[in-house]
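Box 3.1. Reading complex inputs
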Amino acid sequence: GAGVSQSPSNKVTEKGKDVELRCDPISGHTALYWYRQSLGQGLEFLIYFQGNSAPDKSGLPSDRFSAERTGGSVSTLTIQRTQQEDSAVYLCASSLGAGGGNGELFFGEGSRLTVL
Amino acid sequence: LAKTTQPISMDSYEGQEVNITCSHNNIATNDYITWYQQFPSQGPRFIIQGYKTKVTNEVASLFIPADRKSSTLSLPRVSLSDTAVYYCPHTDKLIFGTGTRLQVFP
C-alpha cells in the first residue's frame, strides 16, 4: 500500500485477554517503530526495529508486551493479559533508513485499544 | 533521559504568525531537527526538517541557530485548520514527548 497500514483500527477486549496489533510498513522501509498514546497525552516510545532485529526494547512497559517483525516487513505487537491501563492508541511508524530520527517517519492511523 | 523541551500549549488567532520554540540541549552532531504535526485521531505527520540556519517549505519555516541547541517552527498566517499538536522529537530513541498544543481561534 501507499502508506503504513495498521489493524485492527479499533479493538475492545476484556481484562486478562491477549491482543495482537499488526503494522504493515511502507514497502522498502527498513526501520519500524511502535508508540503508545494515551488519551490527551504525547507519544510514548515502545520499541524500534531495524530489519527484523530490535536493538532497542527499552520502552516496553512490562513483560506482558512483546513485538516481532518478520521478513523485514510486517510487525506484530502482542499484549498478554491486558489490563485497563493498557487502553490507548498504538501507533506504528516506518522510515527508509536506520533509526536516529534523520529520516522522515511515516505513521499509520493507529490501533485504538480499549480494555474493559 | 535525553529529550527536547517545548511549551505545553499556545493560543493564536487566525491570520497571525505562530512561532514554537524547542530546546535540543543534547542534540548529536549528525542529527537533523525534525518537526511533526498531529491532528486528533490521526498519527503524526512530518512537517519540516533542517540541520542549521533556515529551511522553508510550503507549510512552515524552521529556524536553527548556529549552536543548534534550539529550533523555532514558524507557521505564517495560521488558520483554524492549523489547530493541532506539534512535536520536535529527540532523535535519540525518537522521543516525542507531549508536544505543543496549538489552538487557533477565529
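In summary: Chain A has a mean pLDDT of 91.
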